[in-house]
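Feature request disguised as a bug report, sorry. It would help if multi-protein outputs had a clear separator. Right now it looks like this:
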Amino acid sequence: MVRGKQKEQAREKAQKLAENRAGGKSQLETRSKGLQMKCPVCKTPVANYKVIVQHMEAKHLKQTIPPESSF
């Protein structure tokens, strides 16, 4: 078997690539960590105060926008 060593090396390389690809496809956990604040009216998760202000202006026109210190 002339290609015995090459076959083994190719198989090991493919196995390492498969192990690297196996994890990390889902970003749900990372995304949930970034969305720490919630809208006080509808409880929609948002990233920061600036986004809350935009959300409140668009979705909750009659509600007053709470100050940043309340979050």
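(second protein starts here, but nothing in the output says so)
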Amino acid sequence: MSPKPLEPLAKKLTKGVIALELLGVLGAYGLFHTMDTSRDFRNTMNRRFPSILEVYYKSNEWAGIYGIRERDQEAWSAKQD
């Protein structure tokens, strides 16, 4: 029995979807890592995309890591003075 004509297309689409998902996960990890290591980048995110920064703070609080938000606010307010 010969393969159905749509099977190669389905395999290509599946590989494409998996590749896109992998890129999305790697991109999210890269963004989280950069926010985790750079207070200046978090300040940029605070000005441009505050909702994304809020997700970062909430995910850390959910994981039991508290105080990042408060330390950032203190550092940013001291920098403005």
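Even a blank line would do. Unrelated, but nice: Residues 38-80 form one domain.
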